[in-house]
Amino acid sequence: MSVGLVLSGGGIRGVAHIGVIKALEENGIYPTHISGTSAGAIVGALYAGGIKWADILEFFKVIPIFHTNRFARRKPGFLDTEKFYDEFKNFFPEDKFESLPKKLFVTATDIIKGELVVFNSGELIKPVLASATFPGVFSPIEIEGSFYIDGGVLNNFPVESLKSSCETIIGSYVNPLKNLEIKDLKHSYNVVDRAYKIKSVSDSLAKFKDCDFVISPEALCEFATFDMRYIDAIFEIGYNSTIEVLNERDKINKSLTN
């Protein structure tokens, strides 16, 4: 049976995806196809490469994202995305999609053409890095003459790649919209940021119907995109939310068969 797993972007909130994977496996659910963007592309690539959930979690804890040796020079971004290549090479010595045990789809945004591109063959590491290139923080990455940034800019819940090949699709969405009051929008940039988030969330929510079920914990609203202090808490939220969803589905299925 082919089982697809869609992993959204969300910065460090993407660690919740790892908790989702742990809970699914404990319940005998092993995805065969992965589609991810941004942080979801990183988690998805490692998982598709056969890396255990505990090792993926450790990866997020030890990788020095904001170290001074990552700073970009003469590139449009604070951090040079390509300087993360060696960390990924340790996990993917054979740098190509075809070497992965699971089928993987990774999305990235062509910053010049303004188009979404789905990578699923050939070179692996650069597309994964490109997908996670948060605009303004990380420098765009070049792949075959084109320059790419975060796939979540155009599609933060890339379920489309799985619809034709998977009998079951599970979604993990880690960017729920935070409840606010008008007093929270004190400055113009707060309004702009809110508008962007509303558009992104709306586009993603519209695609939840394409999944058999979706894990989207509201508690993740409380964590900032790059706040590395709460990795364990975010992981536990992803795990516990998945267990809750699976238990609820079991109750519904039992009631229907009685």
Shape type:
globular
Q: H/E series, N to C?
A: EHEHHHEEHEEEHEH
- β-strand percent reads 15-25%
Portion in helices: 25-40%
Instruction: Supply the CATH class.
Output: Alpha Beta
The total number of structural domains is: 1
Nearest-integer average pLDDT: 88
Class by alpha and beta content: alpha/beta
Annotated CATH architecture: 3-Layer(aba) Sandwich
CATH level-3 fold name:
Cytosolic phospholipase A2 catalytic domain
The number of distinct β-strands equals 8
Question: Which value, in Å, is the CA radius of gyration?
Answer: 18 Å
Number of helices: 7
Distance between the termini: 26 Å
List the uncertain runs. Answer: none
How would you sum up the major sheet? 8 strands, mixed
Q: What would CATH call the homologous superfamily? A: Cytosolic phospholipase A2 catalytic domain
Account of the 3D structure:
The chain has 258 residues and is of the alpha/beta class. It contains seven helices and eight strands. The protein has a single domain (1-255), classed as 3-Layer(aba) Sandwich (Cytosolic phospholipase A2 catalytic domain). 35% of the residues lie in helices and 15% in strands. Helix 1 (15-26) runs antiparallel to helix 3 and helix 1 packs parallel to helix 7 (231-257). The model has no long low-confidence stretch (mean pLDDT 88).
